[in-house]
Amino acid sequence: MKLPELKIGRFTARIPIIQGGMSIRVSDSALAIPVAECGGVGTIGGSGIPVEELQEDIRKAKKATDGVIAVNIMYAMKDFYELVMGSIEAGVDIIITGAGFSRDIFKIGKKYNVPIVSIVSSPAFAKLAEKLGAAAIVVEATEAGGHLGTDKPLRELFPSIRKVVSKVPLIAAGGITNGFEMAEMMEKFGADGIQIASRFVLSKECSVSQAFKETFLRARKEDIVLVKSPVGMPGRAIKTPFIQKMEQGEDVKARECKFKCLKKCSFRYCINERLTKSYKGDVENGLVFSGANTWKMNEILSVREIFDMFVRQAESVYREGKINLNNA
């Protein structure tokens, strides 16, 4: 059966897939444009880069597609509001935000008629986000890559949030690798759509280095580990020599803070520097964020091929009529 559309505020994605906004520069317009063209929500990672660079990338994406373009901005960023306002000025359709919680963002969204999507990992924050005016909510579980707000798996966390959110779309995120799992989350658990990130790293259009992609392809289940992030939240990444050094107690601190990008930073290491290294190809000294199920992926596909695979698989098993977990 045909998958439903995903409506977020005044925007409609033909395919209920949001491409996760991965920073730094992992999700840029080169990836967001084809995702939007395929009918999903193409998301630019807006954290850790200069406002002017982000604006230029948003304008590039908006000029290239009539599809939906979002930006993901971590609340933990020191220049969070500058990035938000810069994105609105550049014409972004939707703002997605997590890694902390902002109340003021909903007022800004309402003022400028820009839908706000909150990434949450607990029923309490989901309920608050809906109350404050979120246009949609992403439930991000422990299987996700990057910074994690919970240790609960998706199939345990999602139902608890589905029970308290009823007025806006609820999107499942964390560890989803194929269309069969997409259909499961939508049909069995009542998700209105899914957010996927790691699968899009292994796309032809993703701008990361070939070495970054090969690190994904070589990863075994046991290679994907939790790391301490200077942001103050645990993160999920592939074990690189850099992470091994940290585990062995070696000093990996940056000698100076070049970016001053975070509101709070433990200075354990410079996350901006380490993410940039892996993006450019120095995975030996870089940080490679990854979802828990990256080890299941074994090929690089085009964005179109990824969409076709997910839709074909999902529609082969999807049956309309969501479970009502509010009454479960």
TrEMBL record:
Highest rank taxon of the organism: Bacteria
Keywords: Dioxygenase, Flavoprotein, FMN, Oxidoreductase
SUPFAM superfamilies: Inosine monophosphate dehydrogenase (IMPDH)
CDD domains named among the record's database cross-references: NPD_like
Entry-linked Pfam families: NMO
InterPro entries hit by this protein: Aldolase_TIM, NMO
Gene3D superfamilies: Aldolase class I (3.20.20.70)
Record-level Gene Ontology MF annotations: dioxygenase activity; nitronate monooxygenase activity
Protein's recorded name: 2-nitropropane dioxygenase
Species per Swiss-Prot/TrEMBL record: Desulfolithobacter dissulfuricans
